[in-house]
Design a protein that fits this description.
The chain has one helix and five strands; from the N terminus they run αβββββ. By secondary structure, it is mainly beta. It binds zinc ion (ZN).
Length: about 70
């Protein structure tokens, strides 16, 4: 089941409380915090909204080199 808009509306970055943006990727979707420039992975359709799990992203919204880019 994909992440619903209703769920997206209530999800926020645990660090800065900014609303997150869904990023659909063939290698694994995630939720991007535009303020922190991190992506929270979605694993098995469950958003992992943990600061420890956040992966830094570049301007293109892709995980930076050296970080896991695939989490399916
Ligand atoms: Zn944030």
């Amino acid at each position: 089941m994909p992440i619903s808009q209703e769920l997206l509306d209530i999800l926020a970055c645990p660090k800065c409380k900014t609303g997150v943006i869904l990023k659909e990727r063939p290698k694994g979707s995630g939720l991007i915090c535009p303020t922190c420039k991190v992506i929270y992975p979605i694993k098995d359709d469950i958003p992992i909204m943990l600061i420890d799990e956040a992966i830094p992203v570049g301007e293109d919204g892709e995980p930076k080199a050296g970080y896991t880019s695939e989490w399916k």
